[in-house]
Here is the input.
Amino acid sequence: MRVDYRYGYHADAAYPAAIVNITNRCNLSCAHCFVFRDDNPNEAVSPRLEPSDDDMLATLRELRDRHGIGHMLWMGGEPLLRPRLLRAGVALFDHSTITTNGTLKLVDLGPGALYVVSLDGPRNINDGVRGAGSFDRVLANLRALPADFSTPIQVQCTVTPVNQAHLEDLLGELIDTPVGWMTFSFVVPSHGEQSELCWPTLEERMHAVREVQRLKAAYPGFVRNRARSLELMAPDLAPAVTARCPSKQYVLPLWLDGDSFTTPFCCYGNDVDCDRCGAWVVFDFAARIDATAADEARLDPQSAGA
Ligand code: SF4
Ligand code: SF4
Here is the structure.
């Protein structure tokens, strides 16, 4: 498969992680979906016209070796529409994360992979965004998993003004399921977006950030956002994080465009408002970089004395 490097991504650069869109088909049609925004490479074609599993796997193996990719995040569309490709694909990388809407049967990919299942609130709130019946289908799928299902499962909730008051209700629904833990990401608006699904300013987002901080304190083993990543979302700190987006530096986004891959502006596509980005991956990376810098400063006497 051809790979078109655009928007500052380079064929000779190192990327420790990548995101690959293995299909533009999806069985849901979520209101806040960034994949299917205009101006993104997202045309869905029939399975017959998509690149074959073998072609895609050969390309991904080559990209792994070229860029040193250790962690692959598999997404779509809905990646579980191509289970055979997933089974073979996770064997190519040291770490694999599969982002799924959770409405299709989960395939056991072994203990080394991780499922991240998207749910955006308790039943009524989730279904208002992700479609009627989707919440119950996900919960039924999770509860039907065999006791020896070996792939760990994380739920990720995209926080918006619509669900910010209902996050604890979602958490309560998940405690007695096979879900191991959850994380909260915050919506990434498109340029100029003014809708009920995003906050106009970072100041207005803080109510939701504080709610996640409260939940982390109340359920420390279950809510896995790093404390520092949430602190970095404050209006006086977030602009410095998103201005030097760590995701754009370290994660190669591979989106399916016909029979080739292309790199969009970032893993959230082409039409994004960085100034209001609340992506979990961005702030988690930034928190980890912060922690590493602090460790290095402690180990370096010159820096520590400065
Ligand atoms: S399940 Fe994911 S890819 Fe499909 S429409 Fe919803 S957000 Fe988009
Ligand atoms: S939208 Fe978010 S993830 Fe994308 S480049 Fe901007 S800050 Fe990074």
